[in-house]
Specification:
Elements: E1 4-5, E2 9-14, H1 19-29, H2 36-47, H3 55-75, E3 87-94, E4 98-101, E5 111-118, E6 124-132, E7 137-143, H4 145-171
Antiparallel strand pairs: 1-3, 2-3, 2-5, 3-4, 4-7, 5-6, 6-7
Length: 172
């Protein structure tokens, strides 16, 4: 399995007894709940109301609106508190379906829930469910559709950066 280097952090925990808690947080982080702005955007796109709009500017405006919502929630002390997860590690490598952590912390065949902090726009934690293939390597089994698109874009960017680095080394 070919993995590209990535400088990302993950927090995770065995699914065990907390599966319903993890599913609830997964839905919240994935924007499936409590996101009237996202729901409005999806309806507008489905009706074709955004065809004439510049998608980049529209996305920036939506994210700006979300920031205002976050500030409003902060002022009202309504902050969403993420679950405490038992383990953490740095990622050693990633690809489109798998990742590897630096320390051996997984149990082969066990299912986990985790969050990877992604340096994408907008910066956020990407919630995932995954299964350990060995003590360091895992296969992603569930990820939100929009998060998957952004995650895959990040993997592609890391692959391109690695190719450029290898090309520069070969040119020397």
């Amino acid at each position: 399995m070919r993995l590209v280097p990535a400088n990302l952090d993950i927090v995770f925990e065995e699914i065990g007894e907390r599966e319903s808690d993890f599913l609830r947080e997964f839905d919240k982080l994935s924007g499936n709940e409590d996101d009237p702005l996202g729901a409005w955007m999806k309806r507008a796109k489905a009706k074709g109301d955004t065809k004439e709009s510049d998608q980049v500017i529209l996305t920036l405006l939506v994210e700006l609106h979300r920031k205002f919502d976050e500030l409003n929630a902060y002022i009202k002390n309504e902050k969403f508190i993420k679950l405490e997860l038992a383990q953490s590690s740095a990622l050693d490598g990633i690809n489109f379906e798998n990742f590897r952590i630096k320390e051996a912390k997984f149990k082969e065949g066990v299912g986990y829930y985790g969050r990877i902090f992604m340096p994408i726009f907008p910066k956020r934690d990407v919630a995932i469910f995954f299964e350990a293939l060995d003590e360091k390597t895992a296969k992603i089994t569930r990820i939100n559709e929009s998060d998957e698109s952004d995650y895959n874009g990040y993997v592609t960017a890391r692959e391109r950066a690695m190719i450029r680095e290898l090309k520069e080394m070969n040119d020397e």
